[in-house]
Amino acid sequence: MKPTFALDILTPQRKFYSGRVAGALITLVDGQAEFLAGHDPVVASVAMGFVEISLDGEKKIACVTNGTVIVTPRSVSILVEAAEWAGEIDRSRVEGSLKRANERLADESMLWQKDRAEAARLRALNRIAFLERHPPGPAISPSA
């Protein structure tokens, strides 16, 4: 049996996931990093992308936004703005968000909202790319 560690994925809205896992592959600002039990302590910036959780020989993948990961030898805490399983993402809603963001970026009268519109565009593109690579399937239920 592989050694496990405690993994928590937290957003401002909810505890997205909490449980023991064998590994976590995370998209960081400078590339991907895999964390296993006993890893040296690390604090790093999480980039928009994904978190792949290894659990009982299975891999489950969640779409995440920017944030921070805190690693100790016995635990990993991922604090992100948002985290979703593929089955939680409504593609038509995301495509609508992308369309609105692109319209705001093209509208010169909305330049004061350019940063917000660009952030919304990047989030939508991340979610669409995630769904294309990882179509909805069974999700890991968050633990209490």
Structure explained in plain terms:
The protein is an alpha+beta fold and 144 residues long. It has 2 domains: 5-86, ATP Synthase, domain 1; 90-133. The protein has 2 helices and 9 strands. Strands 1, 2, 3, 4, 5, 6, 7, 8 and 9 form a 9-stranded mixed beta sheet that branches. A hairpin with a 2-residue loop joins strand 7 and strand 8 (75-80). Helix 1 (91-106) packs antiparallel against helix 2 (114-133). The longest helix has 20 residues, at 114-133. The two termini are 24 Å apart. The model has no long low-confidence stretch (mean pLDDT 86).
Main beta sheet: 9 strands, mixed
Radius of gyration, in angstroms, nearest whole number? 16 Å
Residue share in helix: 25-40%
| Fraction of residues in β-strands | 35-45%
* Distance, first to last CA: 24 Å
Q: What CATH architecture label of the largest domain applies?
A: Sandwich
Would you tell me the overall average pLDDT? 86
Main features:
ATP Synthase, domain 1; 2 helices; elongated; 42% strand; 144 residues; alpha+beta; 25% helix; nine-stranded mixed beta sheet
Question: Layout of SSEs?
Answer:
Blueprint: E1 5-10, E2 15-21, E3 23-28, E4 31-36, E5 42-55, E6 58-64, E7 67-72, E8 75-80, E9 83-85, H1 91-106, H2 114-133
Parallel strand pairs: 1-8
Antiparallel strand pairs: 1-2, 3-4, 3-5, 5-6, 5-7, 6-9, 7-8
